[in-house]
Design brief:
It is a single chain. Helix content is about 30%, strand content about 25%. The strands form 4 sheets. A 6-stranded mixed sheet has the order 10-12-7-13-11-14, sandwiched between helices. With about 375 residues, the chain is α+β, with helices and mostly antiparallel strands. The protein has helices spanning about 15-30, 75-80, 85-100, 120-135, 195-205, 220-225, 235-245, 255-265, 285-290, 295-300, 320-325; strands at about 40, 50, 60-70, 105-115, 140-145, 155-170, 185-190, 215, 220, 245-250, 270-275, 305-315, 330-340, 355-360. It starts with 16 loop residues before the first helix and ends in a 6-residue tail after the last strand. This is Phosphoribosylformylglycinamidine cyclo-ligase. Pfam families: AIRS, AIRS_C. Keywords: ATP-binding, Cytoplasm, Ligase, Nucleotide-binding, Purine biosynthesis. Pathway: Purine metabolism; IMP biosynthesis via de novo pathway; 5-amino-1-(5-phospho-D-ribosyl)imidazole from N(2)-formyl-N(1)-(5-phospho-D-ribosyl)glycinamide: step 2/2. It catalyses: 2-formamido-N(1)-(5-O-phospho-beta-D-ribosyl)acetamidine + ATP = 5-amino-1-(5-phospho-beta-D-ribosyl)imidazole + ADP + phosphate + H(+).
Length: about 375
Amino acid sequence: MQDEPAGTTYAAAGVDVEAGDRAVELMKASVARTHGPEVVGGFGGFAGLFDASALRGYRRPLLATSTDGVGTKVAIAQALDRHDTIGADLVGMVVDDIVVCGATPLFMTDYIACGRVVPERTAALVAGIARACAEAGAALVGGETAEHPGLLGPDEYDVAGAVTGVVEADELLGAERVREGDVLVALASSGLHSNGYSLVRRVVSDAGWSLDRHVDDFGRTLGEELLEPTRIYARPVLELLAAVEGVRALTHVTGGGLAANLARCLPAGLTGVVQRGTWTPGAVFATVRDLGRVPSADLERTLNLGVGMVAVVAPDAVDAVVRHFAARGVPAWECGQVRERRESDGRSNAKGVDGGVALLEGRHQGW
């Protein structure tokens, strides 16, 4: 065969196929640890396969699904060259979105886009996703790593994922279950979680703070605080639903803040009133507020301010709910109540749906 003339190769275009293959080898063990007998065909097929025969035991199974990313928090991980925590953020964002309707997560897929495949970095990302999937009880059945030279810088990447779960139709949680007089129970966040990082990064940049700066109020560096993984509520929430009656609805406090997300799980005609005085937001929130002189209204519609989830429960279930989460290391407290909506409450402030109204009253302790 005559020698071919030298020309442009895929590698010359910036795509390293061999690096991609090495990354797959490095991540195999992490992914396999999330697999139970329901995962069919193992790792590496064109499609992830999950045995759905267990759904035969449901009376009327509803499949629940959610997709999301981590946002600009990945810029902090890239700057610190630490990639093993972002997976928890990704899993928390999607898994807890379906858990609030009462769904049990079944399986998840992920997508990583990068400017250059670094096998060890990709493996660290996937290992973090796999650990978080195991914590949430979901199998990581597939994913994709795509190299995009020229679109992303060599050390830039973004991650996204999707999860599927199942819930009995007559056990679906939501606004239609909420009643006047129900109580709001707050579940503490672990920190910023994965929302508002565009604001946080701008505040830090404008102040000239470096990520390796030690902050006494945090007891660690700024970068370590900003990379604190998202708390994953899935398992303790599902255990609550199996053990305690009277849980009406749940909301996941993500983009839009506490009020906009709480209003999503309230029906038109009712208002949820949260008392700020029932908790003190953590030091990271005070630092962002003070460092950037961020207006309170902007903080509340951007950051979770220490509350990652809210449960709407019957009055006689409050003590059991608080004890349940405390026993599992999740601080929880009564933070408000549901009442009839008044004309002075204004229009629904629900994020993306025609829901109820959520109001925040009073001042935070120590603020």
